[in-house]
Amino acid sequence: MFKVKYFEAVRTAAVIVIALIIAFLIISLVSDQPVKTIGIFLLEPLSTKGHIGNVIEMAIPLMFTGLAVSLLFRANMFNLGAEGIFYFSGVVASVLAIHLSLGGWLHPLAAIAAGSIVGALLSAIPGILKAKWNANELVTSLMFNNILFGVGLYLLNYHLRDAKAFANVSFKFEKTAQLSKLFAGTRIHTGLIIVLVLIVLAHLFLYRTKWGYELRMTGANREFARYSGMKTAKVIILVHLIAGFIAGMGGSVEVLGMYSRFQWTSLPGYGLDGALVAMLAKNNPLSVIASALFLAYIRIGADLMARLSDVPSEMISIIQAVIILLISAEQFLKFWKNRMLLKEAKEA
């Protein structure tokens, strides 16, 4: 018998299964070879070393933004500003990667540190507005996304752009600024180690420190936390600083690990995807790893399916939409949870 403490894990698994079943039904209706197409979607990402590498490469930025958003959600802050911070911090890191000359590991370290610090400072602005004047963090963060994108695109077009290139891209990064690859034959870079360490540190911070406890209590009930003597305004600003730092580091790492020039002419989307990763992980830092890998896996599977079969990759949007709808539906399987609570109460 499942216990109540396992309910959320079982509920999340049920959501994923339902989303996949719906996707398979649609594939069966639109594909001439549905069994083969489903096989490509499910198994092709594991078929070669390169495809496995693609999954992990895509999961790295999702882990960064998923971790940042999960901390904000844990504090009951519905802030989606990781999108703009991820982008703009990539621009900041690119400036140092192009114009700074440092040897060895100092160059990427300086570029990543600059992007992370800028991300933290930018994220603090919606945090201060929320803590001091109770401004809606969703509205302010979404506005900041557009502002940061506009400023970043201006810097790319008028200060970083390589006029000799046949695209809207920056000058090439110095070789010393780029992150080294971990496995031959893939583009998996040292950013994987960085994000895994960050996830462990975030877990320890959340569950082993006084500040993490205050963050969780503020998220659970801000008024109760305030009357208990916790300085909730400081907690809100702190979590925004930490989340911005992580998102900024993610943008910097992604740019230096995957590219030789800055070439984002639109928001990359990882910040908004981070919200989905956080929802799947139930705002648990350690669960972010599995959630990011799952989302990356089905996206790579959808891309391979589009290339090797007659079903477009947009199929993945259906899966994501179903997951978001069911995860956010509080009443989904709640009857089962109530039944388990009554059963455990009787046994006690």
UniProtKB/TrEMBL annotation:
Give Gene Ontology CC terms: plasma membrane
Extract the CDD domains matched here.
Answer: TM_PBP1_transp_TpRbsC_like
Q: Name one GO molecular function term.
A: transmembrane transporter activity
Q: Look up the signal peptide feature and give its range.
A: none
Q: What subcellular locations does the record give? A: Cell membrane
From the record, give the transmembrane residue ranges. Answer: 12-31, 51-73, 85-102, 108-129, 138-156, 188-207, 235-256, 315-333
User: Where in this chain does the entry annotate a coiled-coil region?
Assistant: none
Protein's membrane topology: Multi-pass membrane protein
Which keywords annotate this record? Cell membrane, Membrane, Transmembrane, Transmembrane helix
Any single Pfam family the record assigns to this protein: BPD_transp_2
**What InterPro entries does UniProt report for this protein, alphabetically?**
ABC_transp_permease
Identify this protein by name. Answer: ABC transporter permease
Task: Tell me the organism.
Answer: Paenibacillus graminis
